[in-house]
Amino acid sequence: MAHDIQIITEAELRGIVKLDLTTVDVIEAAFAALARGGVVMPPIMSMELEAMHGEVDAKTAFIPGFDSFALKVSTGFYGNAKLGLPSLNGLMVLFSAKTGRVEAVLLDNGYLTDVRTAAAGAVAARHLAPEVVETAGVIGTGLQARLQAEAAHLVRPFTRVLVHGRDMEKARACAADLARSLGIGAEAVDDPASLVAESQLVITTTPAREPVLKAEWLHPGLHVTAMGSDADYKNEIDPAALSRADSYVCDRVSQCESLGELRTALATGLWTGGTPAELGEVITGQKPGRRSPDAITISDLTGTGVQDTAIATHVRARFPKAGTIIRA
Amino acid sequence: MAHDIQIITEAELRGIVKLDLTTVDVIEAAFAALARGGVVMPPIMSMELEAMHGEVDAKTAFIPGFDSFALKVSTGFYGNAKLGLPSLNGLMVLFSAKTGRVEAVLLDNGYLTDVRTAAAGAVAARHLAPEVVETAGVIGTGLQARLQAEAAHLVRPFTRVLVHGRDMEKARACAADLARSLGIGAEAVDDPASLVAESQLVITTTPAREPVLKAEWLHPGLHVTAMGSDADYKNEIDPAALSRADSYVCDRVSQCESLGELRTALATGLWTGGTPAELGEVITGQKPGRRSPDAITISDLTGTGVQDTAIATHVRARFPKAGTIIRA
Fold first, then answer.
1. Which end of chain B is more exposed for a tag (fewer CB within 10 A), N or C?
2. In this predicted model, what pLDDT tens digit does every residue of A128-166 receive, in sequence order?
3. Per its UniProt record, what InterPro entries does this chain match (chains A, B) (predicted)?
C-alpha cells in the first residue's frame, strides 16, 4: 500500500527554514504544548561508540493536536574533522500521528537541530531575560555560540556582544562573524568574569565538564541560558548558582536532572529549590518567570523531542511541495 | 558537505531481499557477533500513544566490524485496519559506523522487520530443533505465522504443518496459504495440545497475555520458538515450561527479562536456571544448544537491534545501485 513520502535535503531545508521569529514561535508553541500536558516524550535513546569516538542520540515526542510526530537521530563523530567532515550529522523522520506511516524524511545533516536548539535559546530569552539587554555575552565559540547569539538578538536586540573561549583565536573569529551577521559591535574577551559583569544576557555553549560560570559572578538584572550540557558528564554552571538565582527554569525537569546543570546541583546537594519550573510553564503562565528587572534568572536547555516534532511538522505543513516525492 | 544517500522503497526491497537462506545466514551472523562482544545495543526506545491506539519502537545496534549501523523505527497503529491500511509500518536508517552520516533510508514500511524477525526463527530452529522435523505446528494466524513457518522450513524441511488460532477461520486461511507456499500438507487444528503433541517444532506467534502453550504439553524431541512476546504485558508460554525444558535460549537475556517469556517466569519464581544462554552463544559454541534428539528446547525471541543493523547493512553492501540516490 504505497504512499507518498517527502524527502527534503539539507540544501532545500536551508532555503525554507531560517533562524527567524517564525521558527522561534514554532519552538515556543512546542514548549507551551509540553506544559499543557498529554505530550508523550520517552527518555532519549543514547549509544556511546567509544571505539569510533562517536555518539548517537535519538529523540521523539508526540504532541496532542499535532498531525505528525518526529523521530530525530543526531550523531556526533569526533574523528570527522580529520576527514574534513562536520562532527555532527543526523536526520529527522516525520510520522503520521494518526497512522504511524512515514510522511517525510528530512535529510538535514543536523541543520534543523542546530536551528531548533538556537530557537529554544530565543524562547528562554524572550520569557526570562530583562526587557532591555544592551550587552550579551557568549561563552563558547562553536556554531551554537553564533546561532544562540543570533537567536537571542531576534528577541533582545542588543547592541554589543562579547565572546569568551579557551582559545582566544576562536573567540575572535566568532566575534568577527557575529559583528558581520548582526551588524553590531563584537569583542573577544579574555576574562569570563568581566564578560558576565558587563552583560545582561549570557549564553554558555560549551561541552565543559567543569563550570565555566561561577556563582559569585551572578549580578542583578542578569539572565543566563546554559545550553551546553546534554550528557551526564557535562557541567557549565557552578552548581551553587542555581539556588542563588531568583528563577531557575528547565526545558524539561526530567532531562535536566540527568543531563543538565541540575544534575550536578542535585549531586552536590546545592539545589534546594524543590521541583524547578519548566520553560513551557513560564510561557503559559503556570509558573512565574522573571519577577523584576533586577532578578537573576537561569535557564537550562538540554534539548527536547517536542522541539524536533514541532520544527519537522512545521516544515511539512508549510512546505508540502519542497523536496522530492518518493512513492513507497 | 552534501553526500549521496540511497533511498530504497518497499517495492524495491521486496525485489531484492527475500526470506531465504542468504537472509538467514545474515541474521545468524548478527547473533554470532552479539555473542562475540563489543556490540553496543541500547535499550529499546518505546512510546505508547494510548489516545491513538498506537505504539512506536526504535531499535539500534552497533556491531564491531560492520561498516554501518541501523536505527529502525517500527510503528503499530491498531486503528489502521478501519482505514484499510496495515497496522505495522516503519523504516530503517543506515548510518556510517565511521562518520555517523546517513548512508541509506530503507522505506520498507516494516517489510525488513518482518523478514529479519522470521529469519531469527530459522536461526533458532537451525541450532535448536531436532535434526529431523516431520511436523511443524504454528500457534497464531497472522503474517508472522506464515513467515515463521516458511523460515523454519528453509532449515527443517518438514512435510506437514498444523495451524492453531482462536479463530478457526483464520487458522484455515493460514493453513491454506502455507500449503500453497510450501507445497506440503497443512491443516488447521482446534486443539493446541494435540498440535504440540504431533509436532517436533512449534512456533508461537501471538500477542497473547496469557500462556497459549502449557508446560505439561512439552514432550521429548520438541523445540519451541516463542516469538510473540515483545512487551512487558505479553506472555505466550506457561512460565513453568522454561525450567522444564532442557535448554531455554534467549535472543538477548536483558530483553527477555523485561519483554519476553523470561519476564513472567522470573516474576512467578518459576525460573530456576540462572542466566540463560543467548542464541548467539549457541551459534558460536560458547554455550550448548540441543544436547540430544530427545531434548526439549525453547527459544525466546524479542527482536534485537543487531538484526536490523545486519539486514540493513546487507542491503546496502549487496545492492549499492538499488533505489534512488539523493544528494543531501
1. N
2. 999 999 999 999 999 999 999 999 999 999 999 999 999
3. NAD(P)-bd_dom_sf, ODC_Mu_crystall, ODC_N
DSSP-derived 3-state class of residue A191: coil
How large is the average pLDDT for residues B121-134?
98
User: Where, residue-wise, is CATH 3.30.1780.10 in chain A?
Assistant: 4-113+306-327
Instruction: Name the residue of chain B whose CA is nearest to A49's CA.
Output: B40
Q: Say what angle helices B143-155 and B111-128 make with each other, to 10 degrees.
A: 40
Contacts of B9 in chain A (CB under 8 A): 2, 326-328
Q: Among all residues of chain A, which has the CA nearest to that of B78?
A: A99
Q: What is the mean pLDDT of chain B?
A: 97
Phi, psi dihedrals of residue A94, rounded to the nearest 5° = -105, 130
Per the annotation, the verdict on B72 as an active-site residue is yes
pLDDT digits (tens, 9 = 90+) for B40-63: 999 999 999 999 999 999 999 999
Condensed to tens digits (0 to 9), the pLDDT of residues A103-116 reads 999 999 999 999 99
Look at residue B1 in the predicted model and tell me its pLDDT: 73
Determine, for residues A60 and B75 on separate chains, whether the beta-carbon distance falls below 8 Å. no
Task: Pull the grid cell for residue A244.
Answer: 542563588
User: If you count them, how many residues does chain B have?
Assistant: 328
Nearest residue of A to residue B41 by CA position? A47
- For B137-154, give the DSSP string: EEE--SHHHHHHHHHHHH
Backbone CA torsion sign across B317, B320, B324, B328 = positive
Residues 6+ apart with CB under 8 A from B274: none
Please report residues of B whose CB lies closer than 8 A to that of A62.
47, 49, 52, 56
Tell me what pLDDT residue B122 has.
98
Q: What is the pLDDT of residue A1?
A: 73
What average pLDDT is seen over chain A? 97
Numbered ranges of CATH 3.40.50.720 in chain A: 130-302
CATH 3.40.440.10 fits A130-302, yes or no: no
Give the CATH architecture of domain B4-113+306-327: 2-Layer Sandwich (3.30)
**Min Cα separation A157/chain B (Å):** 32
CB within 8 Å of chain A, chain B residues 108-127 = 109
Structure confidence by residue, pLDDT tens digits, A53-90? 999 999 999 999 999 999 999 999 999 999 999 999 99
Residue type present at position A212:
V
pLDDT on residue B16 = 96
By DSSP bridging, strand A297-300 and strand B4-9 are unpaired
